[in-house]
Amino acid sequence: MYAQLVYFDGPRSADQLVAADYAARHRIEPALAGVPGLVCAYELRRHDGSGVVIVIAESEDVLLVAQRAIIATELLPGEDAALLPGPDRVETYPVLAHHSKSDIYANRG
Known about the structure:
Structural class: alpha+beta
CATH class: Alpha Beta
Number of strands: 4
Order of helices and strands: EHEEHEH
Helix content: 25-40%
CATH topology: Alpha-Beta Plaits
Radius of gyration: 16 Å
Distance between the termini: 29 Å
Number of domains: 1
Number of helices: 3
């Protein structure tokens, strides 16, 4: 498995956050729905709008396919490219281990 961390540095305005949430819900998530091998995604956001999206996939190739799917989307009517500058950086890592809640509590001995 591989993880991709997509960073959005802050501060981001309320308008930028509304635009990003709309794009995610109505354009990006539908584009990614057709990409097999995506395991899960987490979005983390601070009060200033900065944040990280963590995507877990079965392989590094799946992450590349997902990136291409996102890039291939066109802005929807009403979307303003000026409010959607894109991520500040993207990092990809192999997943070396996964620890579930039960694993953590089992090892408290």
